[in-house]
Fold:
Amino acid sequence: MTAQLKFRDVTLGYDRHPAVHHLSGDIAAGALLAVVGPNGAGKSTLFRGLVGILRPFAGDISLGGLDIRDIAYLPQAAEIDRSFPITVFDFVGTGLWRATGLFGGIGKAERGRIAAALAAVGLTGFENRSIGTLSGGQMQRLLFARVMLQDARLIVLDEPFNAIDERTSGDLLALVKRWHAEGRTVVAALHDIDLVRAHFPDTLLLAREPVAWGATAQVLTAENLMAARRMCEAFDDTAAACVADPPSRAA
Amino acid sequence: MSLHAALIAPFTEFEFMRRALAAVIALSLGGAPIGVFLMLRRMSLVGDAMAHAILPGAAIGFLLYGLNLLAMILGGLAAGFLVALLAGVVARSTGLKEDASLATFYLASLALGVTIVSVKGTNIDLLHVLFGNILAMDDQALLVVACNATITLLALAVIYRPLVIESVDPLFLRTVSRAGTPAHLAFLALVVINLVSGFQALGTLLSVGLMILPAGIAKFWSRDISGMICVAVGSAMVAGYAGLVLSFQTRIPSGPAIILVAAGLYVASVLFGTVGGVVRQLFPGRHLEA
Structure:
């Protein structure tokens, strides 16, 4: 399979301190990749770089010709104002932005798609509820419905199953597998190692630097997981500027 | 005194009252929807701050041309845009919160404005600038207010979708579109335009009143945003009309009368509103089966 996303010596972070340090690798088109690592490993930072809301300090992320509108991103802590008076139907409908833009109408076909997305996540009947009335699990279902409507070739899910009960995460996982079957590239940050082993063919084990990247069975070994756990999370305020040459140039 | 004499005669008999009514209707159409978005975006006090920020511009217009409405409006617009832009740029480039950034700029701006007016003019001029006079709308001022209302409604229609999405889920909008920042800046510009309109009629201190109070009222009567906008516009018009009548029949100045009526409607809404009103909460009825 061809590479969809290419990371070339990518360093991402905040205030000059790297959170993801010298990451290189490819993600194949149509891959189903789990990103695993302890808290503070840089998973979210990597995703923010991937979807283009954080610019890398160094290195380069190539999206293989994807426009930002071909990417659906489900952040870990969505900044959603749930007190805003908007209905479930309208909120999910915003997922059609790529098709409708500023002025495009929501016609019969679009209404059908919205209804189908709500049905797929089990929220039929909630159309006219305002989003503030939903429970945590229902909210996550709602966000999955919006991702579905975005009809994106790359789907980035940041810890999508946190604080979600078994039945809901089972339903949502089925959706993820459906997206994979449709040939979309799906990247998800996860903490449930058993779930990753059971359902995700590829894994990136991240601890600010990549510990291992490849087929899940080879990546998630006891040794690698121990190595990831030893990661140092704290920023060193007195850290010197990083002078490590990128491997490509050193070679 | 008959009902006709009290409620309708003032407008049929006096042209200045008809002009005031037209001005208040235009103000309601433009300002109330803006107020709803200010409230939903938790920027109610930002509107207030902006109202103070436009003072030095209006004062410079006054300094150069005396009590010429057009000059004061243009000056106010310039000052408002400048402060909004500077505050926005400082907030977005330094990580200082937008409200803190705006607070410093508007305080400096207000001090400058009051200084300019009091150096050149009299206390009466200062009162006029601070409290406006809706009973003295000439053709020019009326046209400006009407134009501003038209511009507001058209521009709002253009930026409505990104503005709503940016209010609910800014991160999502950033990942699908670059329309967020332009929509936000256009919205701030609309806030300024409507403040300058209100400034003519209600003065710098109260011009934000016909934006925020109707929005507060609307929140107690509707659960969705289009409903809120309709209720806000309607209640602003009612407050404007009733305020004018009140001010005509009593000695209360027109600007404060309008805002006081709006405040009365607000209190009634807090008490009896169907969405989260106090009475509804005290007597919610038996809980439902499901």
